[in-house]
Design a protein that fits this description.
The structure is a homotetramer. Chain A is α/β, with parallel strands linked by helices. The first copy, chain A, has 2 domains: about 1-125, Rossmann fold, CATH 3.40.50.720; about 150-315, Dihydrodipicolinate Reductase, domain 2 (2-Layer Sandwich). Helix content of chain A is about 30%, strand content about 20%. In chain A, strands 8-9-7-10-13-12-11 form a 7-stranded mixed β-sheet. Chain A has a 6-stranded parallel β-sheet with strand order 2-1-3-4-6-5, sandwiched between helices. In chain A, helix 7 runs parallel beside helix 12 (about 315-330) and helix 8 runs parallel beside helix 10. Chains in contact: A-B, A-C, A-D, B-C, B-D, C-D.
Chain lengths: ~350, ~350, ~350, ~350
């Protein structure tokens, strides 16, 4: 039985790790870390956990945590994890970091986009980018996994088959993404009040969102080419879900059939990526609550562009689900352990 | 392994049975019945089931079904199940009827409120009302279970502890209930379009809703007294969830502490009914996707009335979850098999 | 041209006064008061007002305000207005107070339910309760109007015809009310975040909500009898709208026709109260953005109770619209000036 | 007083024309046309109009209509208006067609994208494309106005300043649009039920939506160059609103300041197009219920692309509001008559 600790268990992503691990037969949570709710009952913060989680919230003392657990999930704002990690910690426990601290290999890029100094650049090289479908083997032996961002996961999985096939111009990619509001976190801000979000849609972080370099880096690896993208996220009046609509110029004449065969080939055997039937568009309602990403592609012969689409639950495959998928790989368990819940509809 | 068939698998409740049974280790679905989508892939009707359910929708031929399954769930409009049931069928399979056909013991009451003739009144007596927390022992040996209505389940569980204690005037009860829109079914009606439901709330079926006699009958059994209620359902712009706010006059002086102890006593050992801490009100967000009903009670000394409250997911404990709970009891399985999913929030 | 000032113009109710007065041909806003956004452009707080309101937010200096305006709307938390009012102020300007400070005639009741000391009890007697349909004549000559609460307005208008006719037992009334989230204000609280409110419904303030004594007082006046009620508000995942479902025992045999004729009689000639056709239930979608309250009644012969129903936009007739209606009366204008906007649907 | 008739008054766009004309001092509705609700009270179809509209729905007999009105709005599916129009009709009344029948000058393009034969191609040349900000002078003398589509209006206004300045490559434009559900109409379809739309977002009509050639044609006029675009609409869980996020390559080095000055210049003096302050993104919540389109632009020096953004109420500026704006122009009224309602928030 894997003993797990969660730093940041009282945010939306942290709570989703709790929900998933409660149904995981080989793991148990030993530490519910929180900054704001320390010494309070976890179930008083998230009442869905009443009678399921009797625990009290604890702090973020990583040294103490190391003595009690085998793995720590850090579901915290940027900058925290990199200040906590050190060789002694990593010699005792595995870390799955849901923040951006170890996702970007170039520390200057990280510091420039995030506007903070990195707390432990010496571990960036070791950290494995935890996109399971791509880095499965490296994850299995990792001590420190950088769990991918929600937008990057959905964007990358939507584009990957054509990027690695060399079929799209890697400087022509435009990603127009839409996210449910849980992605904005549980902080008390006027902009995230019900009456401000409901009955509205807006773009934000236009040409400046921090997930941009993360997506570019991963697509560069996949394609072997420098990748520069436009990435525009939007806030949608719904709780969960990310939808990606991505556009790119093709590099040569191509047919709809060939495009689809590249998707099918890229994700053959992948349980958590579903290539939809030809003509169907991903919709977030069909993946809610599950670890699936649904993808599809459409060729537009008028413009010689492809439209690449993906839908995902931002809290599951975009955060907690993928983190547990990483944990399974790191501990030698079947990758889908605890992750077989079907999407909840409606 | 229990072999299950579902008649009406392409409605919201039917689909929820599918979702739950996919995670049930001792049951498998052998028959996806449908009237509207016969011969179509089930996953083309509910795309969340893509790659999870490869089956094709079949019809409603109960005789054929009997040869392939051990239990049939009928998640269909009123009147169908009672025309299908007969002694031969019941000698071969067990039936869990999610319609109202066998919930009301007095056939005249049924026919008067539902406006249709009952197709097999000879089985009403045998049928067991499948409110597991109350009729557990009878359900274990039943061939035919009448799965309770969504409003009745939540109303009854909210009021039951005081009804059986004789503490409330059974002719003073007023139940003001609120339901998410999945309760209205998946039929294509203007009144249920997004733009008609969103940003609105309304009462419907005022003083005439068909769940009224069902609630009255069960509360009469619990209290040993004739019960006549006001029941007013409301349509709320959300997918899932039922909230009950019920009012009654107390029959004698009582304290908040005594009231709460009656709830705790009534539901001691019941996994799926959670008596919240004193002062907390049930909220549907904390039970979504789960089989829990959250209840609580508040005494108002100014008016000498109690306010009894309950929250539930109408598709789970109010339909599919309770149906599976009944199946577990009927087949001698642990009652919570396949039903341990924590509530999904947000 | 009436010169108006608004203290608390950067809350939802304050902003709604702005929206309405922008379309009012005989009034103009001279002072946009705010505590949090002082010196900021009003249109930077509410961007719907971009190019419509060029003004800068100012503070709450009532003495300065008095020199610039004819009427002040105080759309502020409880307790502020009563500390600002004095004889000199009232000799210069008229005040329409949207807080509860002057709604309740008994100062002890006010202080007990609101938990604060009243700042100027000497003006309570003079203040007129601004329910226009009831106190029209008194309002015309008032210096200080207590604009009714949102729940009280909708509750009172739903029950009034039967209360004044002596047809219902004034100690049997139960009011189950449902409100959109704008009623909770624009403060940054976790409980009002989109993901907390969306897909959920809950009761709050059970047996303790502060609007209770206000409703009781007004119904006592209408009926000439002591009135004690149960009042339970609920939070609904929508922006605007209040729905009231109220129950009471009848005091004598009565017919549906008689009940309806009492409503029609009570509201004959009232432009802003619409008595729906027999059998129709009020729905908030049909009044959004307008000053209408829709009401109807249903008799349940089984329980000898009436169900009285009302729907209203909480920000219009429940706050800003009624405030402007009061202003019109106080300044001798046609009562509906600036209030003729039809409901916005969908 | 202009006498107006509406064919298709019982759809969402038709009803919005009613709402707007009720507040229009120089127009009155004489004919509420409907196919589905003939002989029924208009207020029984849209209960917001109770006591505001006493009229009965009538049919679509254009000859009879011509005798009673000065102008007809056709808010009907594609293909109807073109079969009704003829020289005699146009000699008697003016027509504002909200369908696509007369929007596209090339009849083959129309017939190919819409899949129907055009009923009166001889009037296509005469018809004026009713984008008031662009074709104001022509509209003033038109007999037949083709009211622009919702997506085209918002897309065009977002892109127009750079298209006419020759600053963007007209074959590089990608328009990613998001619409509220009222754009899908009031037909009873499963796909538009509350539970299907709520908590989800999806693309539809990918690379095949019928508004594509309309946008291309208008942008070609504006730029003087052949324009080929990618246009992808998305369905958003909200009632109203369209948001456009459009991308294009710049044709030469350009600064953010220059871009913004082009927008300010293009819309100087235009009341219904608001160029937001630098750095702000349009949001649909700020335009709901009003005739405004909010636009802005952002330059991304990394990719040398511009992101052009617009927000609009699809039922107002995207349909009924623009139709009334056209009517005002055609009848020599001030263009903003009846259209001064501020956006309704929240």
């Amino acid at each position: 039985m894997i003993k797990a600790g969660i730093i940041g268990s009282t945010g939306y992503a942290g709570q989703e790790i709790v929900r998933i691990l409660l149904g995981h037969k080989d793991a148990e949570i030993k530490w519910y870390g929180s900054r704001s709710y320390i010494d309070k009952e976890y179930a008083s913060v998230f009442a869905n956990m009443f009678e399921l989680v009797p625990d009290i919230c604890r702090g973020e003392d990583l040294n103490a945590l190391c003595e009690e657990v085998d793995v720590v999930f850090t579901a915290t704002p940027q900058g925290l994890c990199s200040t906590l990690v050190n060789e002694e910690v990593l010699s005792k426990i595995k870390i799955i970091d849901l923040s951006a601290d170890f996702r970007i290999k170039d520390v200057e890029t990280y510091e420039s986009w995030y506007g903070i100094r990195h707390g432990s650049p010496e571990f960036i090289e070791e950290a494995v980018y935890g996109l399971c479908e791509i880095n499965r083997e490296k994850i299995k032996t990792a001590r420190l996994v950088a769990n991918p961002g929600c937008y990057p996961t959905c964007s990358f999985l939507s584009i990957y088959p054509l990027a690695r096939a060399g079929l799209i111009d890697m400087k022509s990619i435009i990603i127009d993404a839409k996210s449910g509001t849980s992605g904005a976190g549980r902080g008390a801000k006027v902009a995230n009040l019900f009456c401000e979000v409901n009955e509205s849609i807006k773009a934000y972080g236009v040409a400046s969102h921090r997930h941009t370099p993360e997506i570019e880096e991963q697509l560069s690896y996949a394609s072997g080419q420098e990748t520069i993208i436009n990435f525009t996220p939007h806030l949608v009046p719904m709780n969960r879900g990310i939808l990606v609509t991505a556009y790119a110029d093709v590099t040569r004449e191509v047919s709809q059939e060939e495009l689809r065969s590249l998707y099918e080939e890229a994700y053959r055997g992948e349980q958590f990526v579903r290539v939809l039937k030809n003509g169907l568009c991903p919709e977030t309602r069909w993946v809610e609550g599950s670890n699936y990403t649904d993808v599809n592609v459409k060729y537009d012969p008028r413009t010689r562009r492809v439209i690449m689409m993906g839908a995902m639950d931002n809290l599951v495959k975009g955060a907690a689900g993928q983190a547990v998928q990483n944990m399974n790989l790191m501990f030698g368990l079947p990758e889908n352990t605890g992750l077989m819940m079907p999407p909840v509809f409606p």
